[in-house]
From TrEMBL:
GO terms for biological process: response to stress. Residues 9-142 form the HTH marR-type domain. This is DNA-binding MarR family transcriptional regulator. InterPro entries: HTH_MarR-typ (IPR000835), MarR/SlyA-like (IPR039422), WH-like_DNA-bd_sf (IPR036388), WH_DNA-bd_sf (IPR036390).
Length: 160
């Protein structure tokens, strides 16, 4: 399959997988150097700066991770006095996660590093190209499930 210009279309899955793996490795090294946190742990703290008191389930959904993984990260962050768990007053089965002062300080220190990483990644591109990149990544994040859903073949004789 070729494009109108006679070129092969980009191998999006391959390129995105390589880009994600390289980006995650490099960012993980940098967040560990800055704050002794994994990239995923930083993600939990950052999510709590957006909305403190999230449940583990809500954090898992927000970060596109499994609940057991997020629960383990919350345990490690709590052991470092960065977050605290608190049972919900409305439903004792629900546990909410809150930032502690030390966690707020870590995010305040690491957010400029994350902004710098974003700036470094986007530096080679014009503003217009950066907007296309943003739109593409947002499209993938918001539509991947729908676009790539398993299509059930229509049986012979069924109406469309």
């Amino acid at each position: 399959m070729r494009t109108k210009m006679g070129k092969r279309p980009p191998k999006i899955f391959y390129l995105m997988n390589r880009a994600y793996a390289a980006l995650a490795r490099a960012a993980d090294r940098r967040t560990k150097a800055e704050a002794d946190l994994s990239l995923a742990q930083h993600g939990v703290l950052f999510a709590l700066t957006l909305e403190d008191g999230l449940t583990v389930s809500a954090l898992a959904k927000m970060l596109s991770m499994g609940k057991p993984s997020v629960s383990g990260m919350v345990d490690r962050l709590a052991a470092r006095n960065l977050v605290r768990r608190q049972k919900s007053a409305e439903d004792g089965r629900v546990v909410r996660v809150f930032m502690k002062d030390k966690g707020v300080a870590v995010v305040a220190r690491t957010n400029p590093v994350v902004k710098q990483m974003n700036a470094e990644l986007l530096a080679p591109f014009s503003e217009d190209e950066q907007e296309v990149i943003r739109r593409f990544l947002k499209h993938v994040a918001e539509n991947a499930e729908e676009v790539l859903a398993v299509k059930t073949p229509q049986k012979e004789g069924e109406d469309a």
